[in-house]
Write a structure and sequence with these properties.
CATH class: Alpha Beta
Helix content: 10-25%
Distance between the termini: 34 Å
Order of helices and strands: HEEEEEEEHE
Strand content: 25-35%
CATH superfamily: Peptide deformylase
Shape: globular
Number of strands: 8
CATH topology: Peptide Deformylase
Bound molecules: zinc ion
Length: 150
């Protein structure tokens, strides 16, 4: 595993739409491993492909540093409710603030082996899913801020 460099705001790749993964190979597994290591080292709760300079629809999430989730080609199939979330982003250092997100989401995605799965998430986990999957469409949390804190 290797730590990758986290792309910061101002780089074009953060504003592009990431491409679907079509090949589930060792390269994909290595990318996901690297992303988990990079996220953990940076003390983050989530990281998306474009944030490590890879324009692919992949994301890793760990709400607590103990449980880890990997998503390939994730789609939010259903969402319900609303919640106010305080967010920051490893690609936008020094900024945090509040955004509105769905309270519950149903996510359909693939794992690193190409197996499809469904995840029902709510609260903090739903928040992180929405934040990370936005990255795959070139959207940043600062686009949705209702209150900037610093
Ligand atoms: Zn982010």
């Amino acid at each position: 595993m290797a730590r990758r460099t986290i792309v910061k705001i101002g780089e074009d790749i953060l504003r592009k739409r990431a491409k679907e993964v079509t090949v589930f190979d060792n390269g994909l597994a290595a990318l996901l491993d690297d992303m988990i290591e990079t996220m953990t080292a940076a003390d983050g709760v989530g990281l998306a492909g474009p944030q490590v300079g890879v324009l692919k629809r992949v994301a890793v999430i760990s709400p607590d540093g103990k449980n880890f989730y990997e998503f390939v080609n994730p789609v939010i199939e259903k969402s319900s409710g609303m919640q106010k979330c305080r967010e920051g982003c490893l690609s936008v250092p020094g900024v945090s603030g509040e955004v509105m997100r769905p309270k519950k989401v149903v996510v359909r995605a693939y794992d690193r082996y190409g197996n499809e799965f469904v995840l029902r998430a709510e609260g903090f986990l739903a928040d992180i899913c929405c934040h990370e999957f936005d990255h795959l469409d070139g959207v940043l949390f600062i686009d949705k801020l209702i209150k900037k804190e610093k």
